[in-house]
Amino acid sequence: MKRLNRQSGISLVEILVALVISLFLLAGIVQVYTGNRATFSFTSALAEIQENGRFALDAMSQDLRLIGDWGCVTFDDADTSNFNDNLPGMGGYNANLHDYLGEEAIEGTEGGGLNGSDSLTLRGGKPGQANVKADVGTSTFPGAGTARLFTSKIRSIGGGDIILVARCGANDLLIPAEADILEVTSVDNTNPLQTQINLGSNKSQQYENDAVVIELQTVTYSIAAGASGEPALWRTEFGNAQELVEGVEEMQVLYGIDSDSDQFPNQYVTANNVPDFDDVVSLRVALLVRSIDDFVTEDSQTYTFNGVTTTPADRRIRQVFTTTIALRNRIGSS
Question: In angstroms, what CA-CA distances link 107 with 122, 148, 255, 289, 314?
């Protein structure tokens, strides 16, 4: 019969050596995990900042480029007799929000907002327009003294909106007004070939297929605390505020002034130094955007914004986004 050898087991020294090796391996794994997590947090925060900054500037640019958009009609604030404005009789009329003839197309304030941010108010058209059409089935256009229009299909206009109806053909000397500013009461989109726009007051004339319809807006951009408590870019249209982009800490605006009437900017100044907002032909907007999460970097990140270098108390990432926007209706048109 074969005799089995006695097993002596593992010595205490061997156990200690194994534990030390395991600790080294575990420390390496923890270090790799911590480094990967820090890299992931940093890259995610950086991607978030870049997405928010680009979206904010893109959204603002669409509105800013259409400041003072009157379609095919020439606007002269010294003589607005070619416009018929029926809005003062509308319910809830507010001259600051609805008066497009007496108020400036662009206004701004320097400072006063969160973190000393500027604010910017603009008046003009929205992207897109519709063409006036004859009533399908009758081949006639609603005449003067009627409170309706038929246009090509447009779903962006609804009840309560303000529209500009502009005649784009040859001027008729018997009709001094080239355009009406009217309130929309309701819209009928049931006809697949056209949209019927019902108005709060009568038109000044019969508009035919040389006329266009543009939706108007009054919009203010500002910086204020968002729903989460983070600073945010706000867009306020006709007094209705909407949080647009979270993490926008500060906004500064410079106004390009055309001082020699060549329709190009000669200098950029702050809002308090604009002699006449009618002379503004471009805007330079700068946004300071920060990460939503704190403790993204090992140390505080020093940044420079609006000529001031700051080392904050937190450990967020910050990035400056700047764009220069030409006002299409004022610059380089001659």
Answer: 6, 33, 10, 23, 34
